[in-house]
């Protein structure tokens, strides 16, 4: 197959798009793979669609290989199933909702759990029918608050989502494991550098949910791994090891101190150590910082106050906080909120005022019974020292909201944590019976009793993968596609205006095509400089230059990744490139 | 490739779905190809998606073969481009509109003219860039008033839409012709029985727009063709030949007659001939029936009265009427409308009251100057005779609203018309400069002057084709797929519980698969009767039965279409089936 650049719908750009934050976005736009249509909405141009299709094919092959069966749902879905599971409400503003001409409520599917469950319920009835795994490669919609980075986080995107349906937990474990292995094969075949991390807190079971994160500095996800064990988790899923509770008897009394000019934790600690005359040394970790927020449950109008107490040496991690409070919305307090709640003394908020006024108060897991804290005394310029948890205050519960830091102890007790950033490319999840309960998805057992089906949920961000691969495979000159997803096998540059050169190049292109290689043939009337720059930008892994050397019977093969150039006799070029490209 | 029915996500149904009106709908649901999710929204099950993909592949190959380049737009589109062309309004209730979280207006693309034009404008600038043809195979959305017949007319469906961009009309003609030939190849390859009919009235140029209609009694479109020439047209596009104008001088005076008990054209004609004593014979064709309607322009709130005058021997054809008035909405008058306009005397409405009261009055093209009519006299039980067009009344224009009938003269003057029904499967259209004007899509010419680009628009209903083929290829037992779109090459039925039979069948399946044939292997624990019935229903064109004959070294090959059975020695079955299936 030969595509001629003289007629290809491709115009490369010299300038980076103004809104491009990350290399993949910049390069996919400049090299003419995608174009922006709306926030989070992109058009796939001819080069882009070829890469997308190749990735889809890999995903499809590996899903078929584990016996998953392909189906396809509409994207436009009626409200009712999503109401049955409360997701119509819980999805909040991330869901695109619309009405049809008769006023019926519809949505654009963000994921299809409901439809998969209902479809299996519609077709299957006996335990003999199970297990079954279904998948689709389909366009999904999410009204992201911050669509960003081109196709990395769009509002319309292609996902492979699959669901397993099993009679029991053992079956679910097997289905989960099959998907885990299929995902490893997919991401390995695509040449990705990735990690598998735990994606849920321990409460749901350690192996119930794992994410595949492509390693990328530009990633939105942060994950940590242990220096000594196999522990790896998305920071959102890290469970803070709680210290043992201590007896409260015999601990010093809580005392309020006048602490002028201590607007920050640092100035407070300095004051306590230098001027308070307490005869003890404090660190920021001895202080308890109370952060005031408000939350709103999906579908509710009113906001509720929430106070989160974390050790003063740690910031609140917004993503961990939000993950802990899902599906509720979280917002910072505004001046009006403080005005409406005068007991909140900004900078000096302490547990007492919170509890006296009925504000829900959740604390870091390190704040256990018997620990003593320096914290706000609910009065300007005053702090309280030796406020003991379980004696002087009783939080309403704990919350994973404090930042996770490199050097923290690994939650499995082995080693310490190191952090890195990644992009979520896959997620496997033992969903259990949430959806089969909602729709009473039962199989009739051998004893004629119903068996509630258990589900697994598995997703791969197919269109995102185009960007993720670009993120890992590029250099300062442009894209450098791995062979298995490159839009073409060979980029043949005709260097020179000589008729003989053009004819020779055409002949080689035809021979390569006949040998089963796809060829992007730069037959444009442009200077060699322009053509070489475009070849580097477009990123086909093998560049074949047919130019003056042809007179001496040689052509040049350039490896896009290494930059290595090889002169090859023209009679051997097809065989040589078949070897290079593996055809 | 072997698919085992024991694990295939397929449950055939014995009963027709309650809402199924046409054979394709009934059979595609019963045979487990599709399932309904919402009005006009269907899920593709494993068998269905295989047929859909095969059709897509044929369409893609033929589009690539004419040099069209594949791209893909989002389905979720911003309002602005559609506002620029007024289609945001003109599309009326057929357009799915929605708002994003920030209140921005979006739509689900019904067709993508705007985006194609804008994208070409974004990439191309010089005359040297042209011509170019782009296409996409993509999911489209239309909020049909009456989604019907399963996937024949859905609200979410897959279309191939392409657009050609040319510098001049000659180029457009060539692009149009290329598409016409590609469509012929596509529909021929799919084995369809279809006609190519003119789709626009002469006003736009005879060859500017043609539809490909699959011949089907259940079709929504009616087309006519000449008994003597190549003329063929959608009835919506038939132009009524207007008779020559006549002199009005010397024609009898118009006279009002008391015509009691003449509520219908038939009773009126009888009265005139039998009781009026006029000494002439009238037919229904001599009467002028005035039908009162109201219309509303897109985006407007108010309705306008409209009177349509047609010869009394013809009904108003709702589809021709609507096509003539597009994009305006049309509705019948309600009692309140008559009450508000007391000059409208129901059953006796004549041109006089209409024109005296400023009601827009459009007539059939047969109503030309000098023709005399019997029509309403705007008074109960009264009609006027010899009311002459151009003398006694002057219509505001003509309208193609009267029914077209078999036996009518062909508009090209050759022969008479015969009618049949069809389903639109393709449409090719010389769009011209509507969209390039809207977006100022120009190419810089060799003389540095801008050249306004001219566009062609071409569509194939890809998902609809699954149903259309089913509509043409089925019998009373089930579907009968043409080989080129069948979900499998061979349906292998294991008939019998004998272990040897099962083992022999598995061996044959493996050999067929190795020879490149796709095999649907019925390895279920079901009776041969159930298996045969399902095989007939599912419709794979070749059924291979492996049963008791195996002991004697033979298997049976059944042709699904003809029912013909052939005994084949087991050693020759692979070769035999390679021959039958063309592998």
TrEMBL record, chains A, B:
CDD domains per record: ProRS_anticodon_short (cd00861), ProRS_core_prok (cd00779)
Source organism: Amycolatopsis suaedae
UniProtKB keywords: Aminoacyl-tRNA synthetase, ATP-binding, Cytoplasm, Ligase, Nucleotide-binding, Protein biosynthesis
Cellular component per GO, a single term: cytosol
Superkingdom, natural source: Bacteria
An individual GO BP term: prolyl-tRNA aminoacylation
Keyword Cytoplasm: yes
Enzyme Commission designation: 6.1.1.15
Subunit note: Homodimer.
Cited function: Catalyzes the attachment of proline to tRNA(Pro) in a two-step reaction: proline is first activated by ATP to form Pro-AMP and then transferred to the acceptor end of tRNA(Pro). As ProRS can inadvertently accommodate and process non-cognate amino acids such as alanine and cysteine, to avoid such errors it has two additional distinct editing activities against alanine. One activity is designated as 'pretransfer' editing and involves the tRNA(Pro)-independent hydrolysis of activated Ala-AMP.
Gene (UniProt): proS
Domain notes: Consists of three domains: the N-terminal catalytic domain, the editing domain and the C-terminal anticodon-binding domain.
InterPro entries according to UniProt: aa-tRNA-synt_IIb, aa-tRNA-synth_II, aa-tRNA-synth_II/BPL/LPL, Anticodon-bd, Anticodon-bd_dom_sf, Pro-tRNA-ligase_IIa, Pro-tRNA-synth_IIa_bac-type, Pro-tRNA-Synthase_IIa_type1
GO MF terms held by the record: aminoacyl-tRNA deacylase activity; ATP binding; proline-tRNA ligase activity
Catalytic activity: tRNA(Pro) + L-proline + ATP = L-prolyl-tRNA(Pro) + AMP + diphosphate
Xref: SUPFAM superfamilies: Class II aaRS ABD-related, Class II aaRS and biotin synthetases, YbaK/ProRS associated domain
Entry similarity comment: Belongs to the class-II aminoacyl-tRNA synthetase family. ProS type 1 subfamily.
Predominant localisation class: cytoplasm
Protein name: Proline--tRNA ligase
Residues in Aminoacyl-transfer RNA synthetases class-II family profile domain copies: 35-482
Coiled coil (residue ranges): none
Keyword Aminoacyl-tRNA synthetase included in the entry's annotation: yes
Signal peptide residues on this chain, from the entry's feature table: none
Localization of this protein: Cytoplasm
A Pfam family: tRNA_edit
């Amino acid at each position: 197959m030969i595509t001629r650049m003289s007629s290809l719908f491709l115009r490369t750009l010299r300038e980076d798009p103004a809104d491009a934050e990350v290399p993949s976005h910049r390069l996919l736009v400049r090299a003419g793979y995608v174009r922006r249509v709306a926030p989070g909405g992109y058009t796939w141009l001819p080069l882009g669609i070829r890469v997308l299709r190749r990735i889809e094919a890999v995903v499809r092959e590996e899903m078929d290989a584990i016996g998953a069966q392909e189906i396809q749902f509409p994207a436009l879905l009626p409200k009712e199933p999503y109401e049955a599971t409360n997701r119509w409400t819980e999805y909040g503003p991330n869901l695109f909702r619309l009405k049809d001409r008769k006023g019926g409520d519809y949505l654009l599917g963000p994921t299809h759990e409901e439809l998969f469950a209902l479809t299996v319920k519609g077709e299957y009835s006996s335990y003999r029918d199970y297990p079954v795994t279904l998948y689709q490669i389909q366009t999904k919609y999410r009204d992201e608050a911050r669509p960003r980075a081109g196709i990395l986080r769009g509002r319309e995107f292609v996902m492979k989502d699959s669901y397993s349906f099993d009679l029991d937990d053992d079956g679910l474990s097997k289905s989960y494991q099959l998907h885990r292995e299929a995902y490893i094969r997919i991401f390995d075949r695509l040449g990705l550098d990735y990690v598998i991390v735990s994606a849920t807190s321990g409460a749901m079971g350690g192996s119930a949910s794992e994410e595949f994160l492509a390693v990328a500095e530009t990633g939105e996800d942060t994950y940590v791994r242990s220096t000594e064990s196999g522990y790896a988790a998305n920071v959102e899923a890290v469970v803070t090891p709680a210290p043992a509770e201590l007896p409260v008897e015999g601990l010093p009394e809580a005392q309020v101190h006048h602490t002028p000019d201590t607007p920050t934790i640092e100035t407070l600690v300095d004051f306590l150590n230098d001027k308070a005359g307490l005869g003890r040394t404090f660190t920021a970790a001895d202080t308890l910082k109370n952060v005031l927020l408000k939350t709103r449950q999906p579908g509710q109008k009113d906001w509720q106050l929430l106070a989160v107490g974390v050790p003063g040496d740690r910031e609140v991690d917004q993503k961990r906080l939000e993950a802990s409070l899902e599906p509720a919305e979280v917002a910072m307090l505004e001046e009006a909120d403080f005005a409406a709640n005068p007991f909140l003394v900004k900078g000096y908020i302490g547990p007492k005022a919170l509890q006296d006024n009925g504000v829900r108060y959740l604390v870091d897991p390190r704040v256990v019974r018997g620990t003593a804290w320096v914290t706000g005394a609910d009065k300007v310029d005053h702090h309280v020292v030796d406020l003991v948890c379980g004696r002087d205050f009783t939080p309403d519960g704990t919350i994973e909201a404090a930042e996770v830091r490199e050097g923290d102890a690994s939650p499995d007790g082995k080693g310490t944590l190191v952090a890195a950033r990644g992009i979520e490319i896959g997620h496997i999840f033992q969903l259990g019976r949430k959806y089969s309960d909602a729709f009473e998805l039962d199989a009739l057992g051998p004893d004629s009793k119903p068996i509630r089906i258990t589900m697994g949920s598995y997703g791969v961000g197919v269109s995102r993968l185009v960007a993720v691969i670009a993120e890992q495979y590029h250099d300062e000159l442009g894209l450098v596609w791995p062979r298995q997803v490159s839009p073409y096998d060979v980029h043949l540059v005709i260097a020179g205006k000589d008729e003989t050169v053009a004819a020779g190049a055409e002949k080689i292109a035809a021979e390569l095509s006949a040998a089963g290689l796809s060829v992007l043939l730069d037959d444009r009337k442009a200077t060699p400089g322009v053509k070489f720059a475009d070849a580097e930008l477009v990123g086909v892994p093998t560049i074949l230059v047919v130019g003056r050397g042809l007179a001496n019977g040689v052509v040049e093969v350039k490896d896009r990744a290494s930059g290595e150039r090889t002169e090859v006799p023209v009679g051997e070029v097809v065989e040589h490139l078949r070897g290079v490209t593996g055809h």
